[in-house]
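Example for tutorial group B:
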């Protein structure tokens, strides 16, 4: 669902074939994770991000992922290191296919994001800390990147972007792993904020209209 979309508990329950109670519980969880918002006299809707929201998620993600990278370098098994490198190469190939396409489909970009998330969760898994894994899983930076792609189109990434990160993490140098992951996480933050800055200046109703105009058919 796009940012700003209204959320009806009854409609969602009917669509999903379940009672309203688990839908209400799910919406409350999404509210706690800053993905939906309840507005008086308006109702519940997918939250519109602010610059503070996006920067905050990036700061938290950098702290979590850099620690995850350090622990991966120190604790991952050889099987986990090999799996990470293989997935990184597959992900770079998928990014290359999207970049080479005249118009990457919404489905292609969504699959790309899912694969990207799997890679970062694999690093967290190799860190061997359940609490760190769960915290990274709940961070929403990749959703904001998805928002950017939907508004402006897929921008592409440097060649072998994820493979280079995986190669550093394959070693046992925790400091090098930390630095590589911080650079990786920070890569699109300023671009994302700069591209969305004009939208942050708009009132919320105008922003909803602009999002609707940019939404792919």
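The residue assignment follows.
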């Amino acid at each position: 669902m796009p940012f700003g979309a209204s959320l009806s508990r009854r409609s969602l329950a009917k669509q999903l074939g379940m009672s309203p109670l688990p839908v209400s519980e799910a919406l409350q969880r999404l509210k706690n994770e800053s993905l939906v918002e309840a507005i008086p006299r308006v109702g519940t809707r997918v939250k519109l991000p602010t610059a503070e929201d996006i920067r905050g998620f990036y700061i938290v993600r950098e702290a979590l992922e850099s620690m995850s990278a350090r622990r991966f370098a120190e604790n991952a098994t050889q099987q986990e290191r090999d799996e990470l490198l293989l997935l990184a190469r597959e992900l770079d190939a998928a990014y290359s296919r999207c970049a080479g396409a005249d118009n990457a489909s919404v489905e292609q970009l969504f699959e790309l994001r899912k694969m990207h998330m799997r890679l970062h969760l694999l690093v967290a898994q190799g860190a061997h800390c359940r609490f760190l894994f769960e915290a990274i899983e709940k961070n929403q930076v990749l959703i904001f990147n998805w928002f950017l792609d939907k508004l402006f189109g897929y921008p592409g990434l440097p060649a072998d972007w994820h493979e280079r990160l995986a190669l550093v993490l394959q070693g046992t140098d925790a400091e090098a792993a930390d630095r590589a992951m911080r650079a990786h996480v920070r890569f699109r933050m300023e671009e994302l904020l700069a591209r969305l800055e004009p939208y942050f200046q708009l009132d919320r109703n105008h922003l909803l209209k602009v999002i609707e105009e940019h939404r792919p058919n």
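The mean pLDDT is 84. Compare this with the pattern of hydrophobic and polar residues in the output above.
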